[in-house]
Design goal:
By secondary structure, the protein is of the alpha+beta class. It is built from four helices and five strands, in the order H-E-H-H-H-E-E-E-E. The protein starts with a helix and ends in an 11-residue tail after the last strand.
Length: 152
């Protein structure tokens, strides 16, 4: 099992700053797929916060998995998604993004066994003003002996 001390080194890791612009065609397709109707304005569907912040800092899901030493793509679970939306996202706006890993905590669950809860945050700004902040917790399942000597 990956030592928790090694995982704790990720705390404070800063993602590369970047940007994301929601194009009309993206908003059209996502809104149609999630809401079943065409967008009636240039406001973007809030579900863009699932992928736009990571894309803005230039990371794929696999790169986050690799950074957090996921044992496989099947050994990652969504923990929590906390979205703060201060203004609606809009098409055509270039949102700047910056973020970091806030914390790593090793836990033992009755069903999941050992896992690392990794909390990261990304902020999207427009002309220096905060538009949205996502704080996600992803769970990275671990196998191998736990501190009590049991295998998970």
């Amino acid at each position: 099992m990956i030592p928790v001390e090694q995982m704790k080194l990720l705390e404070g890791y800063r993602f590369p700053p970047g940007f994301y612009k929601i194009e009309h065609w993206e908003n059209y397709l996502l809104t149609e797929a999630t809401a079943g109707k065409k967008p009636s304005s240039t406001y973007a569907h809030p579900s863009f916060l699932f992928h736009a912040p990571l894309a803005a800092v230039g990371l794929t899901y696999q790169e986050i998995f690799d950074l957090c030493l996921a044992e496989s793509a099947d050994a990652v679970r969504a923990g929590e998604y906390d979205w703060e939306i201060l203004r609606p996202l809009e098409e055509g706006i270039k949102y700047h993004a910056q973020g970091q890993i806030l914390s790593v905590e090793r836990k033992i669950g009755r069903q999941a066994g050992a896992f690392d809860a990794v909390v990261f945050q990304i902020e999207l700004t427009d002309v220096g003003e905060l538009v949205a902040r996502i704080t996600n917790t992803w769970l990275f399942l671990r196998t191998g002996p736990t501190p009590g000597g049991q295998s998970s």
